[in-house]
């Protein structure tokens, strides 16, 4: 599947609840059956974490409740 990293990033960052690797894999396989493996999702998540794992971004990708979730890093300092 083309642009899988960008699509997974968008899916996680717009999700209201943490998404597990299994949920992400199933989501994309509903669109294009048997095109995405769990290893593809794990690799994409690793790339996304690497991208946002620095202080130049105000948000990041975190493991929460068994799934991955976008979270704002500096929210408490704002309010």
Question: Mind sketching the topology for me?
Answer:
Layout: H1 4-14, H2 21-31, H3 38-52, E1 59-64, E2 67-72, H4 75-78
Antiparallel strand pairs: 1-2
Helix pairs in contact: 1-3
Radius of gyration: 13 Å
Largest sheet: 2 strands, antiparallel
Order of SSEs, N→C? HHHEEH
Work out the strand percent.
Answer: 15-25%
Q: Please give the number of β-strands.
A: 2
Strand order in the largest sheet? 1-2
Envelope shape: globular
Helix count equals 4
Q: Which secondary-structure class do the elements indicate?
A: alpha+beta
Helix content: 40-55%
Give the CA-CA distance, first to last residue: 40 Å
Mean pLDDT: 86
Low-confidence segments: none
Characterize the structure shown:
The chain is α+β, with helices and mostly antiparallel strands and 79 residues long. It has helices at 4-14, 21-31, 38-52, 75-78; strands spanning 59-64, 67-72. The chain has a two-stranded antiparallel sheet with strand order 1-2. Helix 1 (4-14) crosses helix 3. The N and C termini lie far apart (40 Å).
Key terms for this structure?
79 residues; alpha+beta; two-stranded antiparallel ribbon; 4 helices; 2 strands; 52% helix; 15% strand
